[in-house]
Design a protein that fits this description.
Radius of gyration: 20 Å
Pfam families: DAO
Distance between the termini: 39 Å
Number of strands: 19
Keywords: Oxidoreductase
InterPro entries: FAD-dep_OxRdtase, FAD/NAD-bd_sf
Protein name: FAD dependent oxidoreductase
Shape: globular
GO molecular function: oxidoreductase activity
Number of helices: 10
CATH architecture of the largest domain: 3-Layer(bba) Sandwich
Length: about 375
């Protein structure tokens, strides 16, 4: 029997499974759909340190940016190309430069390489950028990868070490011993014996947690992205306006949009981003797409003449205090959670997998796990 069953074969579940298997833990990954078919498939692949305020999440992001190359080096050679691009990020302001300058200074104090540059220097990095830029910050540590390729590669690494991945299997509940400890996972295909289960169900983690006796407050937050027709090289870095940081950290349920523009290896340009708490409503809202397009043209005027070939959206797992939920659930021995990353799951996945593994096997963690603990008030509703 496996030691650990990971429920959820998206990026976070795959990263946890990969790290556990690399440490010698026997792992089985379950998903009711297909690997990387949910939130992961609706992501941009960002590995960012530039968009987080100083605090626990930023420290996790810094550690994860350092961890990603180590994880990629462990992948089987035949699946190692996940379109990893350490291209750097550029944050620009087109109005008052003071907030961006202050934010970059705070990040530098927290250990981020945040370089304030002049508009002229920004235009050298991105020649097609709007001339309305008043100041900019360059983040050489920002990177990007292809999230579906990366997730499937992580799962391939799990298989190469003797682990297993099962698609189309729904985890329904857990079986517990008389002591209360998890001894198996009940699925629609039968019981799977194990000593621990990891809830990596993304925006559905709250429902799964409740079903197995460990409810957590994780909500879906929807985001939409536009995709252009393939273009010659036109956007060299991840570029976004200074409003993006505020949108990332906001708890407002209403629609928020900010400009995020980046290219992919295939030549398409991804345009985001939106955030909206509307439950699991997947209706395509034209006014959101128009707002994304309008703001993108404001940042890169040439996009006004570029065709959009498709759009996609997805639900991101949102915790009320904006921090991931990582670690063991004290209410159900053997139940672990790895969720709540919202739109930062791709970037934070490498350190998430490492941290869960360190806690599971009992070695000193590489980051402080305390801020992410499961039994904090915002997550379990305690006073």
């Amino acid at each position: 029997m496996p030691d650990v069953v990971v429920v959820g074969a998206g990026m976070i579940g795959a990263a946890c499974a990969e790290a556990l298997s690399a440490a010698g833990v026997d792992v089985l990954v379950l998903d009711r759909g297909t690997p990387a078919g949910g939130t992961t498939a609706a992501g941009e692949g960002n590995v960012l340190v530039s968009d987080k305020e100083p605090g626990p999440e930023l420290q996790l992001a810094i550690a994860s940016r350092q961890e990603w190359p180590k994880v990629l080096a462990r992948l089987p050679e035949q699946v190692a190309d996940v379109e990893w691009e350490p291209k750097g990020g550029l944050v620009v302001a087109t109005t008052d430069p003071a907030p961006l300058e202050k934010f970059a200074a705070q990040q530098r104090e927290a250990g981020v390489d945040a370089q304030l540059i002049t508009p002229a220097e920004a235009f050298e990095l991105e020649p097609l950028l709007t001339r309305a830029v008043t100041t900019a910050a360059y983040y050489p540590e920002d990177a990007q990868l292809q999230p579906v390729l990366a997730t499937t590669a992580l799962l391939a690494a799990v298989r190469s070490r003797g682990g297993e991945v099962r698609s189309g299997v729904t985890a329904v509940s857990v079986r517990r011993a008389a002591t209360g400890r998890v001894i198996g996972v009940e699925t629609d295909a039968g019981l799977i014996d194990c000593v621990a289960v990891v809830n990596a169900c993304g925006p559905w983690a709250g429902a799964f947690g409740a079903a197995v006796g460990g409810p957590i407050e994780v909500l879906p937050r929807r985001g939409m992205i536009l995709v252009t027709a393939p273009l010659p090289e036109c956007v060299r870095h991840k570029v976004y306006d200074a409003d993006y940081v505020g949108a990332v950290g906001s708890g407002d349920a209403d629609l928020q949009t900010s400009t995020v523009v980046e290219s992919t290896r295939s030549g398409t340009v991804l345009i985001g981003s939106s955030r909206e708490r509307i439950g699991f409503d997947d209706t395509v809202k034209v006014h959101v797409l128009r707002e994304l397009a309008r703001k993108a043209v404001g940042l890169f005027p040439f996009l006004a003449d570029v065709a959009v070939i498709r759009t996609y959206g997805g639900f991101r797992p949102y915790a009320p205090d904006h921090l991931p939920v990582l670690g063991p659930d004290p209410r159900v021995p053997g139940l672990w959670h790895a969720t709540g990353h919202e739109g930062a799951g791709i970037g934070l996945a490498a350190s998430t997998g490492r941290l869960v593994t360190e806690l599971f096997i009992g070695v000193p963690p590489h980051v402080d796990p305390e801020p992410f603990r499961v039994d904090r008030p915002a997550v379990v509703g305690l006073p």
